[in-house]
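Q: what does this look like with 2'-deoxycytidine-5'-monophosphate bound?
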Amino acid sequence: MIVTIDGPAGAGKSTVAKALAQRLGFAYLDTGAMYRAVALAALHRGVDWTQPEALARLARQIQIDFQNERVLLDGQDVSEAIRDWKITQITPYVADNAEVRKRLIELQRRWAQGRNIVTEGRDQGTLVFPEAECKIFLTASPEERARRRLAELQARGQSATLEQVLADQQRRDQEDASRAFGRLTRAPDAIEVPTDGLSVAEVVDRLAELVQSRQRGEKLRDPAAGRAT
Ligand code: DC
């Protein structure tokens, strides 16, 4: 079974997707980490990420693997390095590159073969796994997402103001919405789950219920749209 979780930055996808995968005994795929890994490889190898052909060539050469939720780039654990601020700045060049996207989508589909997975990103329910049995669109208000992001930064010992985080988030939302290929949109058959005011455990409970009803073959009722999918 394939469970897709898409949504904007800061909606809590990673935390929730990991916990849900663990609860269900499914494998977890973090597709954002793949885009970040290409950005890191470009930085390490001195590849000009503003040159689309160079970046596409690089994406075909490198190897990205996942091992117990660690991200490996050519066999090296880069799980922390890909979260660096500089990598977050380079990654949109990677995500906007149609050739790179095609390559990563191919890897994502191959990785999913023969597995039960929870996969998270921006285009999982729309472009990568349109046939997925259970699709979630995770959202939260801009203020809630920014507050969570700020708490995360502070926990890592980094300082920023709420205004800075909100401005950065607005820019990322704009990038995600305006991408020519792989734009963030809700799949028509995805269930929207707003997470404002809910704890991680409460969100995971809700998603686990949705997956289990799908496993029983039930149609899902989307409270946001008031219709069954
Ligand atoms: O979710 P994240 O912050 O780790 O994602 C990193 C970047 O990759 C972000 O710019 C959005 C982009 N991305 C994408 O375009 N498609 C995906 N499936 C996952 C992430």
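Residues 9, 31-32, 35-36, 91-92, 95, 121-123, 176, 182 surround 2'-deoxycytidine-5'-monophosphate (CB under 6 Å). The radius of gyration is 17 Å.
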